[in-house]
Amino acid sequence: MGYIRTLLGSALLAGTLLPAHADNHGATATATDADERRFPPSYMSVAEHRQVSPEDWSDPRICGQCHTYQYEGWNGSMHSNSFRDPVFQALWALAEKADPDLRNHCGSCHTPIGVATDSITFHPEKGLHGGFSAPEVAEMGVSCDVCHTISGNNLLETAVLEHGNASFVMDPGSTKRASLDDANSPYHDTSYSDHHTKSDFCGNCHNIFHPGNNFPIERTYDEWKYSIYAQNDIHCQDCHMVPVEVANRVADTLTPPDKLGDLDQEGFVGLGGPWRSFRHKHGFVGGNAVLTAVLGERDAEKPEDLGRDSNYQEALARLRSVASLGLEVNRTRNDQVLHQLKVRVTNERAGHHLPTSLTEVREIWLEVVVTDDQGQELMRSGTLDDHNELPRDTVVFNAHAVDANGQPTHLPWEIVRFTDVNTIPPKGWKYGKYYFNVRPGTKEIKVSAKLHYRSFNQHLADLLLGKDAVKVPAVEMVALEEVYQVASLVEPPPPAADDAQHH
Amino acid sequence: MSRACSIVIVAGGLLLLANQVTAAATAEPFHWNRAVLEIIAKGDPVAGEKLAKRERCSKCHGDEGIADEDDSPSLAGQVAAYHFKQLYDYQSKQRESRDMLKVTRDLSRGDMADLAAYFATLPREAQAGTPPPPKLVSRGDPRRLLLPCAACHGKAGEGMGSEVPAISGQKVEHFIEVMERFKEGDRSNDHYARMRYIATQLSSREIEQLAAWYAAPPMEDDEEEGLIPIALD
C-alpha cells in the first residue's frame, strides 16, 4: 500500500493530521488489521470468509424478469453505472497509477463483485489514463443481488468506528434480503432485513474516508445522521426510493412515507406475488443527471433500456425542487451609493448537505445579475465563461481540498484536509452577498438570481476525459427575479445570528 | 320538432355518448390497479357460465373449457386475473384477434370478470405423469438470461398470482403459435416485453419441446424435480 502507507507514515510522524482517537484506530486498522482483511483498504468482507466467484451473483436482467418495476428503476441509475461511469473509470485509473492498492478502495463500492472475486483487470492502454474490465455481472456495478445478499456491516471494524469504505458483509446465495416480512418466492429464499430499511445500509458506501489519513472525504451518511431527518426517523430510502413528489412531501413534513398516506405507490413487487400498498423505486436518484443522460443509447422497445429516460427526468425534478432562493436588497450603512444584495439559498428538501458526496468536485453556484431601469447591467456574478468555467468571484457551495503540501487537488487519494467548506446543511441556508452602485436618477433595479448545479467542473472533465472531450452540462435548479424601487431601499437590519455569510 | 322526435334525438345522443365513453375506456391500455383487482375479485362464476353459453365460447374452447381443436386454447383452470386481462386486451386491441374482438366488443368489465371466474373454476385437462421436465423448465439458461419457466409459471405450469397464466394442459399448436407470435413481436400485450424477450431466445425446437411437456406435465401433487436456482454449469 505504497501511497496510502507513505501518506499515513508522514502524517503520523508529523503528529498533527490525525485526531487522537483516529490516530489510534487509524494506525492500528490501517497498518495491522488491513493486512488481515481480505480486500484492504476496503472494509468489505464475505460471510464465513468464503471464496466466491462472479457466478455466485445473479445477473440483474434475470432479477428483472420478475421484479421488473424495480429493474426499470435501477437500469440506467448511477448504481447500475457505478463501474462503467467514464469519469469514475478515469479517476480510478489515475488512482491505480498512484497506488495499485487503491483499486479495492474505489472498487469495493463501484464493483463489489469485482473486488470480492478478485476479477478486475486494469488496461493501461485504454482511454486517456487507462481503464478497467471485469466479468459482466461485476461490471453491472451495484446490482440487485449485490444489495439483496448483503447480510450485515463491519462498521466497528473501520478505522473511524463508523460506516464507510464498503463496510458491508457480502453473503451471496439463495437468500435475498429486503424490507418485506411476508415475501415468498418460488425461485429464491427470502429474509426480512431491517438493515435494508435504514440509512445504516446505505452509509456503508455513502461515507468515505481516506484510507491512509482517515480524513472524511464523502460524508453523506454523517450529514444525514446529525440532521433533523435522522431525528424524525427519515432514512435515505424514504426519499431516494420514492418518486420526487413523495420525497418532497417527506421533506416538507418530516414524515416517513409510510405515515403520509395517498402515496399512489401501489403495485406488484414481484411477478406472481400479491398486490402491495407500497413498492420502492430502485433508481436511487439524486442530483447526478449528467451521466444518466449521456451513458449509452436508449431504445424504449428494448427491455435492457427500461427506465433510462425516467431516471434522468427524475434527477432533473429533484434538482429543481431541492432548494429555494430569497433576495434582500439594502442601502449599505453610512453609504448612500453602494447597495448590498443578499441571496439566501436554503436546502429545503435534501436530508444531507447541498451538495454532498464529493463536495470538492460537485458545484452548486449562484448566478446573479442586477440591472437598472435603463437596461444597464450594474453587477454580474457566476456566469460561465467561454471555457465553461466559473469566474473567480462566483459564490460556490462546495468544499476546497488540498494535498499534503497545501496545494488544491481534486484527486481523492491526495486529500489531506479541506480549507473551506461551504455546503448547505439540511433545512439550513447560506448567503451569497454582493455589492453594486446605482446611477443617479435610477428609479428601479431588477435582481435576477439563479442557482445552478453540475456534477463536476470543466477543468476536471478535461483532466479525466481529455481537453474538450465533453462540455459539462449544468442544470438550473431554481431562479428568482424581483424588481425594487430604489427610493424604498433602507439600511439593513443588524446582522442576525444565523447569517452565515459568504463571499 | 315533436316531443317524440326530441326524445329520440336525446336518447340517440345519450347512446352516442355512452358509446364514446365505452370506446374511450377500451382505448386505454390495461393497467393493474386496485379497482381492476376488485372487479376481478367480484367475478361470479355462475353468471360467467351463463354468459359463456350465450357467447358460445364452447364453439372454440370446448364444452368444459378444454378445446377440441389443437390450435385453440383451452381455458379451463386459467388464472382469472390473467384471463380478465386478455379479454380486456382483445377489446382494446392490445391483443389482436378478429374473432375475439367480435366476442369481447360489447362485454362490460363485470362480464369479463364473470367469464374469467367461471373458467377458473373448471378443472384443467387431466394429464398422466410424464418424463422429467426439459432443463429450461426447471433450470432455465443463465447464458441466455432465461429464468426457469417454472419460476413464474409454477412447477407444473399452474400459473401464479394475478399476472402469470396457467400453461399446463395447454394445446400444443396453440402454445407454439403464441410463442412464435411473441417471438415475431406480433403479440405484444406482455408487460415489460417479458415473453417477447424469452421467446426470442428460444429455438423453434425448444418451443416445441416445451409445448409438448406442458401439454402433459406431471400432476401438481406428483413427486417431481424441485426448482433449481440457475447457476452457470
Explain what this protein looks like in three dimensions:
- The complex is a heterodimer of chains A (about 500) and B (about 230).
- With about 500 residues, chain A is an alpha+beta fold.
- Chain A has two domains: about 325 residues, no CATH class; about 170 residues, Immunoglobulin-like (Sandwich).
- Chain A is built from 17 helices and 21 strands.
- In chain A, strands 14, 15, 16, 20 and 21 form a five-stranded antiparallel sheet that branches.
- In chain A, strand 12 and strand 13 form a beta hairpin.
- The longest helix of chain A has 17 residues.
- By secondary structure, chain B is mainly alpha-helical.
- Chain B has two domains: about 90 residues, Orthogonal Bundle (Cytochrome Bc1 Complex, Chain D, domain 2), CATH 1.10.760.10; about 80 residues, Cytochrome Bc1 Complex, Chain D, domain 2.
- The longest helix of chain B is centred in the first third of the chain and has 25 residues.
- Chain B starts with a helix and ends in an 18-residue tail after the last helix.
- At the A-B interface, strand 10 of A face helix 9 and helix 11 of B.
- Tally the helices of chain A: what do you get? 17
* Integer average pLDDT of chain B: 84
Structural class of chain A: alpha+beta
Helix content of chain A: 25-40%
Largest β sheet strand count, sense and barrel closure of chain A: 5 strands, antiparallel
Number of strands of chain B: 0
Overall structural class of chain B, as computed from helix and strand content, comes to: mainly alpha
For the sheet with most strands of chain B, the description reads: none
What is the fold's blueprint, element by element?
The complex is a heterodimer of chains A (503) and B (233).
Chain A lengths: L1 H13 L5 H17 L8 E2 L13 H4 L4 H7 L11 H13 L3 H9 L1 H5 L4 E3 L7 E3 L2 H4 L4 H5 L1 E4 L14 E3 L4 E4 L10 E4 L6 H4 L5 E2 L6 E3 L1 H6 L2 H4 L4 H5 L3 H10 L13 E2 L6 E2 L12 H6 L13 H12 L3 E9 L6 E10 L15 E10 L4 E5 L14 E2 L1 E4 L14 E5 L7 E9 L6 E11 L3 H8 L9 E11 L18
Parallel strand pairs in A: 1-5, 6-7
Antiparallel strand pairs in A: 2-3, 4-5, 8-9, 10-11, 12-13, 13-19, 14-15, 14-16, 14-20, 17-18, 20-21
Helix pairs in contact in A: 5-6
Chain B lengths: L2 H25 L6 H8 L3 H10 L3 H4 L18 H12 L6 H7 L4 H13 L13 H4 L10 H5 L18 H13 L9 H8 L2 H12 L18
Helix pairs in contact in B: 3-7, 5-6, 5-7, 10-11, 10-12
